[in-house]
């Protein structure tokens, strides 16, 4: 055995594990099937602007340990996410707050907004929300559901809101204050200089092989290390023996524009179903850029098929039940650890992934 650990995937989970293991004198081989490190948090400089190649990545957390951990590797700026939602030529503030309610209904006070929402819940006759549609209506009322949730969500997930689980929409705050901050967390920001430098530092003590798909060299790679940390798709690891888990994919279309400011905000959501993309991000606004040019990315949701990037696990009941079967196989393994968004099949943000990776490090390398 040449290595203590073979780490499949150089995303955040795999890179934290590699960093902590090499710190403890373990020898790690990190492989990735992509041509670069960092997984979905990879950023690349274009025209002096850090471009988030796989969609907007805003770091946010209330977990002190996670915040201190990530701050070893970068300094974060003061960016606060305040997306704009566009429905036709109407502009609304996100997340749902008094600015949104005022624009939608002309209400001024929290009492008026609550009364309006309550009346719409009564009219819809919802008591116990069973799906995303009912959950959204019971949080923000019918009008906001129709304009700001229904089309966006159906595009994003490729299913009507009545067939989606309520938890997806519960990620978003609903506030009866005039506060456009998308997150409730204590800490938030974008790493100055981008995310890739964080991963470079984490992987500095490991051997890294890019353009290397685990499944193409499974036998030889497995022989090279004592243990495997696997952050790819768990169903693929088991050769889909119980069936395929569902994912949602995305297509990103990036353009450099010869103007200094395209949309005046980092994130603009397009909430009508008829517009094929869900959002346009303008990267320079994540870092208060003043460059003469700008870079924008349109994000198109796509039905996932084998061979595409599986960006989002579809955590509905059917898929979660199937995942539990794979989890039982994983629990039998002595030399394989599953981690990350794909290995654990969960809609994790970066701070969740860091917490999970540190938990794994503690169990595997410390306790
Ligand atoms: P990944 O980044 O997916 O890394 C897994 C790596 O494994 C990949 O590099 C992949 O190429 C590699 N791999 C897979 N299979 C194989 C194989 N067979 N062989 C070799 N290599 C393999 N989080 C936030 O906190 N804030 C945000 O604003 C935010 N926005 C997001 C926006 C989008 C569009 C998406 C998709 C995600 C967003 N996230 C956000 C979530 C964030 O991207 C994830 O939490 C984080 O990147 C997950 O890290 P990971 O290591 O688990 O997985
Ligand atoms: N959502 C919506 N309208 C919006 C933004 C989000 O209905 O303008 C819903 C949608 O279902 C989405 C979910 O809220 O999947 C979570 O949104 P978030 O911005 O957290 O999604 P992510 O950044 O993870 O894609």
From TrEMBL:
Residues 147-347 form the UDP-galactopyranose mutase C-terminal domain. InterPro entries: UDP-GALP_mutase, UDP-GalPyranose_mutase_C. Its cofactor is FAD. It holds the Pfam family GLF. Keywords: FAD, Flavoprotein, Isomerase. Its EC number is 5.4.99.9. The keyword Ion transport does not apply. One of its GO terms (molecular function) is flavin adenine dinucleotide binding. GO terms for cellular component: cytosol. Belongs to the UDP-galactopyranose/dTDP-fucopyranose mutase family. This is UDP-galactopyranose mutase. The lineage of its organism: Bacteria, Bacillati, Bacillota, Clostridia, Eubacteriales.
